[in-house]
Specification:
Length: 115
């Protein structure tokens, strides 16, 4: 799906899945949710859309990333790859969190040095 429908649906379904107490917590669901928030943040920034508070979206992405790592520490590598454009394991178009690359809270979370 094209943006914004793709990330909007990912956020909707990710929130539904993680809110359902019968679902086990899975770190990679939270990685996907963080990535969707990163896409939303970039989309709104690039389209000069102020209909949603960007600080809230950033915090949602950061919280989802933290939750992913708290559930499964191995998700840190995936989050780093989505954040760091220089990651050697990154595939084309996997830039979902790159919008936060200069953000020191994200960098610290995934083990990158501060900017």
């Amino acid at each position: 799906m094209d943006p914004p429908e793709g990330f909007t649906n990912a956020i909707k379904y990710g929130k539904e899945y993680t809110a359902d107490q019968s679902n086990p917590d899975e770190g990679f669901v939270w990685v996907s949710l963080a990535a969707a928030y990163g896409q939303q943040y970039k989309w709104l920034r690039d389209h000069d859309d102020h209909s949603i508070d960007s600080a809230t979206i950033r915090q949602n992405a950061l919280d989802a990333a933290r939750t992913a790592i708290n559930i499964n520490s191995y998700t840190k590598e995936s989050l780093r790859m989505l954040l760091d454009p220089n990651d050697p394991h990154r595939q084309p178009n996997e830039d979902y969190l790159e919008v936060f690359y200069d953000d020191n809270e994200f960098r610290e979370l995934v083990g990158l040095p501060p900017k």
